[in-house]
UniProtKB/TrEMBL annotation:
Domain HTH cro/C1-type positions: 15-73
Pfam families: HTH_31
Domain of life, per lineage: Bacteria
Signal peptide: none
Protein name: XRE family transcriptional regulator
Record-level Gene Ontology MF annotations: DNA binding
Coiled-coil region: none
Protein species of origin: Pseudothauera lacus
Length: 110
């Protein structure tokens, strides 16, 4: 198993987490989002280790390939990030049910 340095940024940590969960190597992920094959691994590595943070348009491409919503990469709270990830994978009718349930819960708390 390759040895990774700890990502220095939240974005890098979330990107690595999503990439490993998806089982996609860095070089393949880069190619899947349109980066030249010769530099794809290095570019994804720089995103993951925090050397560079991609523009939002690239984050959207990464999210689409990795099957996570773009906000997943930016959530500082681990529980919220997991909620965003799971919510993003639900079909529309389940999303609507969950939003209603959350609305009901927050009305009960007030």
């Amino acid at each position: 198993m390759p040895k990774y340095t700890t990502p220095r940024t939240l974005f890098g940590r979330r990107l690595r987490e999503a990439r490993l969960r998806a089982g996609i190597p860095q070089d393949k992920l880069g190619v899947l989002i349109g980066i030249d094959e010769l530099s794809s691994s290095a570019r994804i590595s720089r995103y993951e280790n925090g050397t560079h943070e991609p523009p939002f348009a690239i984050a959207e491409k990464l999210a689409a390939v990795l099957g996570v919503p773009p906000p997943f990469f930016y959530s500082p709270d681990d529980d919220l990030a997991e909620f965003v990830r799971v919510f993003g994978s639900l079909p529309p009718e389940q999303k609507a049910t969950l939003v209603k349930l959350l609305g009901d819960l927050t009305n009960d708390v007030k």
